[in-house]
C-alpha cells in the first residue's frame, strides 16, 4: 500500500472574488471547475483534476488536506491501521466534491482534517503523452508546476508525527528541537516522496495552517515570482531567501484572504534511509532563513 503524494488542499477564502483572481492570475493556477462556493484549480503540470480547492468561507485556513494513494484498496488498509491505532475514521462518499472518488477522513492530533483517496478524474497537463514539448502555451503568473508541501500547526506535534511515521511510513528528514536534552519538538519535516518534505508539523495554534507551497523548477523563477508579487502588490512575508532546513530556496507571501503561500525550489533528494538532521533552538534563525539568520515576528505568529 502506498501514499504517493500530497494530492490536494482545501483553503478557506473569505475574500472570495479577489482570492479566485489571485490564485488564477498571480499564482497562475488553472481553473478546472467551479461550484457556487468552491473553485477547483490545478498547477499546470499536474494531471489530476485539481490540487487546490478554494472554499468560500467566513474564515481563512485549511479546510482539509489529502494524500493520494496508489490503489483504492489502500484506503481499506490505511483505515484498518488507523482504527486499530485508535483513530476514528469516516468515509467521504464519491461525488462529495467534484471529480473525486471516495475518501477516508480523520483528524490528526494537531487538529487538521486529513483525507486519503485514490480516485480522481484525470485531465492531463496540457501536453501530449507522445513527443511533448516542455511546457504548454498560455501559462500566466508564477505558474508553478505543482503543489509541493504544507506546514501545519498544533499542540501535539509528536502525536501527529507518529500517525505519519508509524501508520503511513513517512520519514523525518529534519527536526527543530528545544530543551536541555534537545528532546522537545518544535517542528518536524516529513517525507513520503523523495523530496525533503511533503508535510511539516510545528508547535502552534491547534488546527493552524502556517503555509502551503508550490514548486518552481529553478531559482531564477523565484526572482520572477518576486517581480510578479511586487507588480501585483502581494504582501511578501519573507524572502527571496534560502532555508537551512531542506536547503530549498523560498519566498513566503499572503493570499488576499490571509493564507500564507510559499514558492519553493530545490532542496535535496531523500530516501527511506536518509538520516534525520537536527537543528537546535539556538540556531533557529539560520535553520529557517539561512541568509538573514533571524525570523521576523510575523513569520512565527501569523497562522490561518
Ligand atoms: Fe514550506
TrEMBL record:
Reactions catalysed according to its record: catechol + O2 = (2Z,4E)-2-hydroxy-6-oxohexa-2,4-dienoate + H(+)
Enzyme class, UniProt record, top EC level: oxidoreductase
EC number(s) on file: 1.13.11.2
A UniProt-annotated Pfam family: Glyoxalase
One Gene Ontology term of the molecular function aspect: ferrous iron binding
SUPFAM superfamilies xref list: Glyoxalase/Bleomycin resistance protein/Dihydroxybiphenyl dioxygenase
Cofactor (UniProt): Fe(2+)
Key words of the record: Aromatic hydrocarbons catabolism, Dioxygenase, Iron, Metal-binding, Oxidoreductase, Repeat
PROSITE patterns attached to this UniProt entry: EXTRADIOL_DIOXYGENAS, VOC
Domain of life, source organism: Bacteria
Occurrences of domain VOC (ranges): 5-119, 146-266
UniProt entry tagged with the keyword Metal-binding: yes
Stored InterPro entries: Catechol_2-3_dOase, Glyas_Bleomycin-R_OHBP_Dase, Glyas_Fos-R_dOase_dom, GlyoxalaseI/FosfomycinResist, VOC_core, Xdiol_ring_cleave_dOase_1/2, XylE-like_N
Family: Belongs to the extradiol ring-cleavage dioxygenase family.
NCBIfam families the record matches: catechol_2_3
Subunit structure: Homotetramer.
Name this polypeptide is given: Metapyrocatechase
Amino acid at each position: 500500500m502506498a501514499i504517493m503524494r500530497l494530492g490536494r488542499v482545501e483553503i478557506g477564502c473569505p475574500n472570495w472574488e479577489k482570492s479566485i483572481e489571485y490564485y488564477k492570475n498571480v499564482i497562475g493556477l488553472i481553473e478546472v471547475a467551479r461550484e457556487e462556493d468552491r473553485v477547483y484549480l490545478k498547477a499546470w503540470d499536474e494531471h489530476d483534476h485539481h490540487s487546490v480547492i478554494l472554499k468560500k468561507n467566513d474564515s481563512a485556513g485549511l479546510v482539509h488536506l489529502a494524500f493520494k494513494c496508489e490503489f483504492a484498496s489502500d484506503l481499506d488498509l490505511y483505515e484498518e491501521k488507523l482504527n486499530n491505532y485508535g483513530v476514528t475514521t469516516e468515509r467521504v462518499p464519491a461525488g462529495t466534491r467534484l471529480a473525486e472518488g471516495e475518501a477516508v477522513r480523520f483528524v490528526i492530533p494537531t487538529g487538521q482534517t486529513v483525507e486519503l483517496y485514490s480516485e480522481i478524474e484525470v485531465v492531463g497537463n496540457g501536453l501530449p503523452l507522445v513527443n511533448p514539448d516542455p511546457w504548454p502555451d498560455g501559462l500566466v503568473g508564477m505558474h508553478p508546476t505543482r503543489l509541493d508541501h504544507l506546514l501545519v500547526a498544533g499542540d501535539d506535534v509528536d502525536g501527529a508525527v507518529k500517525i505519519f511515521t508509524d501508520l503511513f511510513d513517512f520519514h523525518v528528514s529534519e527536526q527543530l528541537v528545544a530543551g536541555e536534552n534537545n528532546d522537545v519538538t518544535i517542528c518536524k519535516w516529513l517525507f513520503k516522496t523523495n523530496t525533503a518534505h511533503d508535510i511539516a508539523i510545528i508547535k502552534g495554534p491547534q488546527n493552524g495552517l502556517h503555509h502551503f507551497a508550490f514548486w518552481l523548477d529553478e531559482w531564477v523563477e523565484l526572482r520572477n515570482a518576486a517581480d510578479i508579487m511586487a507588480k501585483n502588490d502581494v504582501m511578501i512575508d519573507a524572502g527571496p531567501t534560502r532555508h537551512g532546513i531542506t536547503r530549498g530556496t523560498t519566498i513566503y507571501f499572503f493570499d488576499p484572504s490571509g493564507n500564507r503561500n510559499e514558492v519553493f525550489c530545490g532542496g535535496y533528494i531523500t530516501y527511506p534511509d536518509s538520516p534525520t538532521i537536527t537543528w537546535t533552538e539556538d540556531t533557529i534563525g539560520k535553520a529557517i532563513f539561512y541568509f538573514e539568520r533571524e525570523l521576523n515576528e510575523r513569520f512565527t505568529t501569523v497562522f490561518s
